[in-house]
Amino acid sequence: MRSLAPPASISGLIFLIRNGLLACLCALPFATGAEHVIRPGDAPQPILDQAAPGDRLVFLPGLHRHGLGKHRSMVFVDKPVEIELKAGAILKLADGETKIEPIGEITTDQDSGKKLDDLEIGGHFEIAGTAVDGPEAYGATIYTIVIDGEGSGDKPDTFAWGDGRIFETPHKNVPITGEWQELSRGVKVRFRNRTGHSVRSLWFVSYDGPEAYGIRIGHGTQKDYVENVRIFGAGTIDMNASGNAQPSGLVKNINACVLIHGRVRNVRVERITMTDTMRSVMAYGEHTGEMLPGGKLGPGESFDVENVFVERTRTINPRGAGYLFGHPSHRGRIRNVKCNHNDMKTGLTAIEPNFHLEGYEVIGNVIESEGQAIHCWRHSKNGVIADNLRVFDVTGKPVVVVNSPRGWEAPEPPVLRNNRNHLSGPDAR
Prior knowledge:
It is a single chain. This protein is mainly beta. It folds into two domains: 7-97 and 210-421, Pectate Lyase C-like, CATH 2.160.20; 105-207, no CATH class. The chain has three helices and 37 strands. The chain has helices at residues 7-18, 44-50, 135-138, and strands at residues 35-38, 56-59, 62-66, 73-77, 82-85, 89-93, 105-108, 119-123, 141-149, 158-163, 171-175, 181-182, 187-191, 202-207, 213-217, 226-233, 236-238, 256-261, 264-270, 273-275, 279-284, 286-287, 302-303, 305-311, 314-317, 323-325, 334-340, 343-346, 351-353, 357-363, 366-369, 374-377, 380-386, 389-390, 400-403, 415-417, 420-421. Strand 1 (35-38), helix 2 (44-50) and strand 2 form a beta-alpha-beta unit.
């Protein structure tokens, strides 16, 4: 059994990575064109729109505070460019760019055992609060609705519901009428069928803020590939979650500092810091086919992501998560991903290989997380997870978890090698 490195060695490694002092061999720039300087106060999108393929955009030191523009991003990329954030440059979402909306979104489980999926929402959600101190202050909420009884004959099925904490349903055994039924805060629901549901069928209804992105590459269904994009430097992308209403985390679209979406290939994200966001980097494809039970797909066109390299970045996100590759609601494939030698501090899952991910590496990362460190979730395959170090955890949490929700195809077990929790033992899992 391999012994742990001496604490001084581990602490020294963490210090080097977290202070950007670890020497690295960085890839040669993709671009060879003109350089466009962006000063604090300049609008970056018009500069990018006018840039030629192969040009470089350079954010100079200072605060670059911007609202949302194309495809709900501060900077939308649709051509081969380099984007450099100089040391001291902060690309930050302005306060109040996203606010709670009175339109709810239903999230339904994809368990193949559900008989009926017929919930509708209506009414007018009453928004309360205006402070910028977390989602509760804005009045955001999630309703949990679950079938808790099956009827027969003239006796209807019943449901339970709750407003606030997910899975908590203090209101129980409510008969389904087939008409609009009021819950709270002006929200109404209707089941089209009074009977025929299966017990434990589950829905969430989110009333929350809309999605927002820092730098977005692709919008999901672009016909041609966006390729050869590099985002790098010693600067920061700050999504200012503390100054904006957030999506609930259960909805289809959530916030990220960098989003890579649809027909996009050959992207490098290197050395930058990402903070105060729901996710630091997300990458996933798109698919026009119908979502079938268990995550299977009906006929349609696939818009796939290929060749994504996220290396030597830093995520400081104690209230959110880190890196997501593959998404069950955005169902195109994502191939050849390397998430290596990054440093992160997260409140939720740090690295998540997920749905329709094929061929990936998660190597040499230093992870401090209150949630999962590395969670292989839903169907992914051909992965290597090696030499990752979980730090500052005295509870014995694993470094790698591999599983899937009920009714979904499980991930293919990755190759695991030398993943360690430095305070809880040398167990590779």
